[in-house]
UniProtKB/TrEMBL annotation:
Superkingdom to which the source organism belongs: Bacteria
GO molecular function: oxidoreductase activity
Statement: the UniProt record of this protein carries the keyword Oxidoreductase: yes
Keywords assigned by UniProt, alphabetized: NAD, Oxidoreductase
The protein, known as: NAD(P)-dependent oxidoreductase
Pfam families xrefs: Epimerase
C-alpha cells in the first residue's frame, strides 16, 4: 500500500482528498497545524515553517500532496502570508529531496495570473487563459503561488522530483451552489475570478490523478477549472460587457469557460464531471 502525506489535511479540500485516497485504499497521513476531529487518518501537528519538523513528519512517504497554505490575501499581514506560503512550499520540497521522495503535487491557484486579487482593474492578455499566460500578480498571495511553482521546477530539474502544481479556481461544494445564486445572477461579483470555479469532487479527482500520474520526474503546472462559467449569462455576453478589448483566441460561445483546462485533461487523463447547472 502506498503512503500519501497530505499537508493541510484539515482544510476543505485536504479533508475531501484524504477521504478519496482512503476510499482507494491508500495509507494517508495528515500534516497540519491544527487537529481535526473528523479526519479518518493519522494526524501529526507540524509547523510548516520548521524544516526539521517537516522532514521528520514526511519520513516514509511515497508521495506528497501539499495543500497547507493561507488560502487568500486576507486576515493576516501581507508579509506573513508571503513568508508562510513560500517557506512552507520550500520546506516540503527540500524535505522530499532529503528523504528521496520523488513525487509531489502542490496546490496552486489561478490567482497566480494576477487578476483575481489585483487592487485595481486588470484584464487578461488573451482568453481563454492557458498555462502560458503571463503571471501578473500585484499582491503577495498570487506571487507566492508563482514562486512555489518556480521552486517546484527547480527541484524537478535538480533532483528529478516529479512536481505537478494544480492551479485551482474557486472550489465549490455541492451545498454552496444554492448560496451562490445571487452572484450567478450578478456577474460583476465574480468578474475578477472570470466566473471560474471547480467542483470539489472534480478537484479531488484531479489531486488523485496527479498523484497517480507518471510524468517521469518532470514539472507541470495545470489549470484545474470547470467546463463552464459560474454565470447565467452567456460567455459572449460576459466578454462584450466586461472584457471587450481582450482578444478571444478560441471563439468562446455558450457557457465556455475563460480558463482552459485542456492541458490538465491531456497530462492527467482527467476531466471535470460536475457543474452548478446540474448540481445546484
Amino acid at each position: 500500500m502506498k503512503t500519501i502525506v497530505v499537508t493541510g489535511g484539515s482544510g476543505k479540500l485536504g479533508s475531501a482528498v484524504i477521504q478519496g485516497l482512503i476510499d482507494k485504499k491508500y495509507r494517508v497521513l495528515s500534516l497540519d497545524n491544527r487537529h481535526s476531529p473528523t479526519l479518518p487518518c493519522t494526524q501529526i501537528l507540524v509547523d510548516m515553517n520548521d524544516l526539521g519538523q517537516v522532514t521528520s513528519a514526511l519520513e516514509g512517504a511515497d508521495a506528497i500532496l501539499h495543500l497547507a497554505a493561507i488560502p487568500a490575501p486576507l486576515g493576516y499581514p501581507q508579509s506573513y502570508i508571503f513568508a508562510n506560503n513560500v517557506l512552507g512550499g520550500y520546506h516540503v520540497l527540500q524535505a522530499a529531496s532529503l528523504l528521496g521522495i520523488r513525487k509531489m503535487v502542490l496546490g496552486s491557484s489561478t490567482s497566480c495570473y494576477g487578476i483575481a486579487w489585483a487592487p485595481g482593474p486588470l484584464s487578461p492578455r488573451y482568453l481563454p487563459i492557458d498555462e502560458s499566460h503571463p503571471h501578473l500578480a500585484e499582491e503577495v498571495y498570487g506571487l507566492s503561488k508563482t514562486i512555489n511553482e518556480k521552486t517546484a521546477e527547480m527541484f524537478a530539474r535538480r533532483d528529478g522530483i516529479q512536481t505537478i502544481s494544480l492551479r485551482f479556481s474557486m472550489i465549490m461544494t455541492p451545498d454552496s451552489y444554492e448560496g451562490a445564486g445571487e452572484s450567478i445572477r450578478k456577474p460583476e461579483r465574480l468578474q475578477k475570478i472570470l466566473w471560474s470555479y471547480i467542483d470539489i469532487r472534480d478537484a479531488v479527482e484531479a489531486c488523485i490523478a496527479a498523484l497517480e500520474t507518471d510524468a517521469k520526474g518532470r514539472a507541470f503546472a495545470l489549470n484545474i477549472t470547470g467546463d463552464d462559467t459560474l454565470s447565467d449569462r452567456s460567455t459572449e455576453e460576459l466578454l462584450r460587457e466586461f472584457y471587450p478589448e481582450v482578444p478571444d483566441l478560441a471563439g468562446l460561445r455558450g457557457s465556455d469557460p475563460l480558463f482552459s483546462n485542456a492541458k490538465a485533461k491531456e497530462v492527467l487523463g482527467w476531466k471535470p464531471k460536475h457543474s452548478w447547472r446540474t448540481q445546484r
